Amino acid sequence: MGGQKFQYDESGGTFFYFLLSFLVLILLPATFYYWPRKKKQDLEQESKDCQCSLCRKKRELLKKSEPWRGPKNFLIKLVIVLGWVLLILLAYKVSQFDYEMANFDPYEILGVQVGSSQAEIKKAYRKLSVVLHPDKETGNEKEFMKLTKAYQALTDEEARRNWEKYGNPDGPGAMSFGIALPSWIVEKENSVWVLGLYALVFMVALPIMVGTWWYRSIRFSGDQVLLDTTHMYYYFFHKTPHMMLKRVIMILAASLEFDRKVNSEIVERQSDNEEMPQLIKTIGNLNEKNKERPLCFLYSIKARALLHAHLSRIPLNPETLEQDRRYIVGKCPYLIQEQVNCVFQLILLAYAGRIQRCPKIDTIENCMKLCPMIVQGLWDLKSPFLQLPHIHEGNLKYFMSKKRQIKSLQQFAQLKGDERRSILSGLTDEEYLNVMKVLGRMPYLDFQVKWEVMDDENPTEVTTGAIVTVTVTLIRKDMSTLFGDETIEDKNIINENNVDGDVKDGSDAEPEQQSVKRPVWQKQRKSAGKKSNKKVKQKVPVKHKTEETAAPAKVKAVKEEKPKEDDSDLSDSSVSDINESNDASDDEVKNSSVEDEDQEWEKLQQKLHKREKVLEGRSKLSHTVHCPLYPYDKQEYWWTYVCDRKSKTLLTSPYHITSLVDREECQLKFTAPIWKGTYTFAVCLRSDSYLGFHQQKDIKLDVKEAPKHVSESEDSEEEGPIEDNAHESDYTTDEDLPDDDD
Fold it and tell me: If you average pLDDT over residues 603-627, what whole number do you get?
């Protein structure tokens, strides 16, 4: 537009607006989320926690391991308070800018009334200029400039017209473009320093930070395990397909996370030269003279000795070896999970024919056994009752007396209160209360297994080479539900009524009130008549398309034959029978179609629910484990997998369940054998936190020969011609094998 002026805000005033808005956007959420709040101690939660000496000691050590928490909270409060103070000052400064720009009144500045004469204006100007002139002691250059501009606006005719017309003695204001930077940055004198700072940040500091992060990240796997440690696991598990438990401990102790040369957090003391030989003699049979590398390295022998001392519950020096034990034990669950993954990857490579030695199922199960041993500080052959507080070797004889043969924690929980108290009569009331607290919070799992062949006409029939899907459902409850006779009766009622809507294999019971919400149109069709409602509640077998169309075909035939007969020959009874048969067949077709639609809708809802869970990510929170010898808080995790005990092979990848709060469901898929016959496979469940909670259920598959391919004539009629070898199977069939009869 002609005559329009543009200018930049070189004073940097716009920077204060930018800084003000930036602080508001940062301080509001930061104050809400990061302001330290004093957590009110929950007396009920404290009453549920175990009060044994080991648990109290662990809680104290966890508090001491965070000495920076107090200074950190103080620093957070200080930063937030300073941010709000700066925000208030900036808001005041910006408000002054707005006041000066929007409140220019020459009459008010000169202190005269509107319509005053030129003589009165000049007199007021002279009086104020004497006071505000910069050369005077009381002078103010800024106020004097404002006074001069107000005097010109009232005495100069052009300035007065501009003020009356535009509100500015200088005329129409130019369009101003502000830069959200402080004024000293745009000054020419500081340009060299600004460029130097820019080069230092973006050309030196940023590349160094990115390079350091990249160098550290490439050394670790996705589970934050050193890649060199993973390669070492691959080497030893491939070298020893059938690995014993003590050998697994040796491999675990050789992890490079325990080497001072790789991990700077490892502490090496001079006192180790005296304490370690004594500890090795106390343990015995440590195989410290092994010549394999890195099993023979000093850091590996030290970690191995500390793990054996931990599993044997040998007391250590709290100032030296005890601290090392806590650090090593705290790293073990993540490393054991990496061992499980490595063994499974080797099994996959063996199935693919890329390696010759395939690790056995015993190897991966020994790795899984080791995790609860480390968490609880017990050997696998020890009694599971030692996981309870105040229970020691001397108390175990009361569990296995002549009258009682209690071998598991579940059996102990099902006893009456008087019997449990009599067994632990050597404990005080407070100690017995701690035992019952811990026992009541341990898991009691309902382990349900169901298998099917999805995407097949008959999901209960297994053919050679078919994909079998095993659905594992875990329902977790506290062990306290087994306390006393009343809870046992409640448990039986729950199993009989199939609470949670689960139908066990082979039962005819239907889940009640657990169906997924259906759309409105399905509800209307389902409630069309009373007869259809009654029949839908009953169990109607799923029919194939041929069976569904049988009834309409009969009705059609009757209708076609009806006009051929004489009306006189048809009695009223025959007409009524035909009508009733037609109505019954129509109701049956409607019921079967409605049920098929309901099943399809439920399957769709289940798929959508599973997809949502995958998108949300896997949670790591379940239930806190009672583990006073483990240095950190531990959550309950589980492994489930399918294996063949006869051939000692693993059929599915171990599924790691990390979010079992109340109920969890997962699917395990494997390929059926390529030879027909009857096979028995084991579906296993293992805990990574407690000993004695392993469960196994067998599934029996009657594998039949896969149906032959459709003939060329039928195939050409339905789908048209196909190319040769288009449907060749990747599996070996019975035709390639010699007959058993021969």
Answer: 68
Structure-derived torsion over alpha carbons of residues 154, 159, 164, 169, reported in degrees to the nearest 10: -100
Grouping H, G, I as helix, E, B as strand and the rest as coil, residue 299 is: helix
In 191-290, where does DSSP find H-type helix?
191-200, 206-217, 227-239, 245-253, 272-283
Segment holding 642, helix H or strand E: strand 638-644
Q: Shortest CA distance to 26 belongs to which of 67, 64, 82, 94?
A: 82
On whether the pTM is more than 0.90, the answer is no
Integer Cα distance of 368 and 338 in angstroms: 11
Inter-CA distances, 481 with 51, 484, 489, Å: 22, 8, 10
Inter-residue contact 654 to 369 (CB < 8 Å) = no
Q: Where are the beta strands (DSSP E) in 645-726?
A: 649-650, 655-657, 663-671, 677-687, 695-704
Report whether pLDDT(516) > 70.
no
Taking a C-beta distance cutoff of 8 angstroms, is the pair 302, 250 a contact? no
Tell which phi-psi region holds residue 344, choosing left (phi > 0), alpha (psi between -120 and 50) or beta. Answer: alpha
Which residues are paired to 91 by β-bridges?
A: none
- Best mean pLDDT range from 45-54, 114-123, 312-321, 611-620: 312-321
The values of phi and psi at residue 643, to 5°, are -140, 165
Partners of 664 in the β-ladder: 474
Q: Is the dihedral of CA 191, 193, 194, 196 positive or negative?
A: positive
Q: What is the mean pLDDT of the chain?
A: 76
Residue 98 banded pLDDT, cuts 50, 70, 90: low
Domains detected in the chain:
6-38+45-178 (1.10.287.110), 222-378 (1.10.3380.10), 520-616 (no CATH)
| Tokens 């009834």 sit on residue | 551
For residues 674 and 719, what is the distance between their CA atoms, to the nearest angstrom?
A: 28
How far apart are alpha carbons 576 and 568 in whole angstroms?
15
> Which segment of 323-327, 461-465, 525-529 scores lowest on mean pLDDT?
525-529
Output the CA–CA distances (angstroms, integers) from residue 547 to 31, 456, 543, 550, 551, in the order listed: 68, 18, 6, 5, 8
Place of tokens 């035992």: 435
Distance of alpha carbon 626 from alpha carbon 49, whole angstroms: 9
